[in-house]
Amino acid sequence: MVKSPKISASHEPGGLIVHISGLLPSLSPAEQRVARLVVSDPADAARRTITDLATAAETSEATVIRFCRSVGMDGYPQLRIRLAAEAARRVEPPDARVVGGDIPPGADLAQIIATIAFNDARAVEETAEQLDPAVCEQVVEAIVGAGRIEVYGAGASGFVASDFQQKLHRIGRMAFYFPDVHTALTSAALLGKGDIAVGISHSGTTSDVIEVLEQARSRGAGTVALTNFPRSPITDVADFVLTTAARETTYRSGAMASRLAQLTVIDCLFVGVAARNRARARRALEVTADAVRARRVGPGRRRG
Amino acid sequence: MVKSPKISASHEPGGLIVHISGLLPSLSPAEQRVARLVVSDPADAARRTITDLATAAETSEATVIRFCRSVGMDGYPQLRIRLAAEAARRVEPPDARVVGGDIPPGADLAQIIATIAFNDARAVEETAEQLDPAVCEQVVEAIVGAGRIEVYGAGASGFVASDFQQKLHRIGRMAFYFPDVHTALTSAALLGKGDIAVGISHSGTTSDVIEVLEQARSRGAGTVALTNFPRSPITDVADFVLTTAARETTYRSGAMASRLAQLTVIDCLFVGVAARNRARARRALEVTADAVRARRVGPGRRRG
DNA sequence: ACCACGGATGAAACTTACTTTCACGGAGCG
DNA sequence: CGCTCCGTGAAAGTAAGTTTCATCCGTGGT
């Protein structure tokens, strides 16, 4: 058996490669070698026979098969044709920016900008592609029906959590965010059936967030995890798992791509929730916009 | 017509399917049955095994192999992956999502996600395109040489400001962010020549941010504005203006696109700054990553 | 009418690719 | 120190793909 019976479904419509990248850290070393080969050149991998690929990855055919199963395929032939399809679909970017590539040392700013924009945009697109609308729908449903919503996140993911809280609050949902673990734990302990706890962690391994989510769950609240890695520990304490698809480079490890990917998911959830009651949400947005109008200056002239 | 295993080269540029259609009349009856199956549903054919396809075409495997050779393939596996690739390529391009379009009232979540992702990714790309590398360069320069860096932003832009501060801080630059206007004003008053103040405001009209930036400027600090509107009030108090390119829709006025666009710019600046001293930045990132390692759990491995 | 010929075809032999099983070895745990 | 569990590849086993070959059938020559 693979994973727990989560609601995250075995769903990788938006790109097999992306899906594999996400699973990469949860694979065994030998399988990771295979995965890296596959990800780095899907078309080439599709051309190879299983023995060939195994040799190239310095492992045995058995491991390649295990890898296929790990990423949700029936066997090698299926992986092969999926890879071929995938490779065909992705039209190579015009110039030679390597996806997820590091910034070359001699790069000038224009190059840097181009590379970053490419990767950032990519993260957004790929995240959206692989998002499972069914799971989103359920999460939206849960949020709409929730008595209280709490959002947790540490460090960089904390910004995202905070952002989500603010958005929900703004359309009149009772949402909270606690930067402090102790406060968060305390608050989580007060959750109950019908409440929703959302934990955000790129790596899926942030113990603070996991603990709080666990606490919330033990009290009967529904739990949602937002992470880049579908088999990371955080998914064990989540009723619903939503994943991002950001490929981080070593150099940019404080990187933005994961943040953008997370925000994209948040945006989808937010709009989904808001769409449930357009009138009310719109009214709330207007009211809140009015509230800060006094803090604005001039006509915002985009004058000619 | 007889079939010509002649010098027809293994070159079918216009697409494999077209190629096969063209050859169809020159094939033997049994091969034609195979060809028709393949042409009518390439994706399906790619999924089938040779025995399967042979049965479906009411013929033997041998004939399928002959068919493969007739159309210039080495064997069945090659045909299969070529078909998969072909089928994938001829998938309809994403449908007509209007750029900057609002979400139609009846939209289901899948549509919403697609629209959002499209607009978000677009905002990132377009922002990068219109970003002036020369100005970025100057800003990076200023930040690298700055004694102190302060970042201001209110509301949603506050998250971005905070994020930027955190990033800079993480690579060892002396950066600050103040959520509170009074504190920010006080701090700005203490800036001087050689310091840098960065104000973030999507609309460019947030008086709090403008005031603080003004204060900083009056003390001799360099000022940077990040806004979506190149002629908004904030640009009057900025030495350097960086712009985003997010088209906000009415409905999503709490919108994410502008946030993502801002973050993209921040990302570019950050990487630009970090690139100035790769060794130091990398070391700092490693050290800070180590610092939170204890707050992480397990290897993210979960199977069985 | 008969036969010789050649191409088309599928059965079966054969080869290669894929999958499963199993035993080994090392890491972590009591 | 011994235990278990997990990752691993060797090898056995199965299925897929390929080749060979005998048969069939239509054609054209005798």
Characterise the protein shown here:
The structure is a homodimer of 304-residue chains. Chain A has 304 residues and is of the alpha/beta class. Chain A folds into 2 domains: 11-91, Orthogonal Bundle (Arc Repressor Mutant, subunit A), CATH 1.10.10; 130-293, Glucose-6-phosphate isomerase like protein, domain 1 (Rossmann fold). Helix content of chain A is 54%, strand content 8%. Chain A contains 13 helices and 5 strands. Chain A has helices spanning 16-23, 29-40, 42-47, 50-56, 61-70, 76-89, 109-130, 133-145, 156-170, 181-189, 207-218, 256-276, 278-293, and strands at 149-153, 175-177, 196-200, 222-227, 240-243. In chain A, strands 2-1-3-4-5 form a 5-stranded parallel sheet, sandwiched between helices. In chain A, helix 11 (207-218) links the parallel strand 3 (196-200) and strand 4 (222-227). The longest helix of chain A has 22 residues, at 109-130. Chain A is globular and about 65 Å long. Residues 1-10, 92-101, 249-254 and 299-304 of chain A have low confidence and may be disordered. At the A-B interface, helix 6, helix 7, helix 8, helix 9 and helix 11 of A face helix 6, helix 7, helix 8, helix 9 and helix 11 of B. Chain B binds a DNA duplex (30 and 30 nucleotides) through helix 2, helix 4 and helix 5.
Topology readout:
The structure is a homodimer of 304-residue chains.
Chain A: H1 16-23, H2 29-40, H3 42-47, H4 50-56, H5 61-70, H6 76-89, H7 109-130, H8 133-145, E1 149-153, H9 156-170, E2 175-177, H10 181-189, E3 196-200, H11 207-218, E4 222-227, E5 240-243, H12 256-276, H13 278-293
Parallel strand pairs in A: 1-2, 1-3, 3-4, 4-5
Helix pairs in contact in A: 1-2, 2-5, 4-5, 7-12, 8-12, 9-12, 10-11
Chain B binds a DNA duplex (30 and 30 nucleotides) through residues 28-31, 49-51, 54, 59-66, 75-77, 303-304.
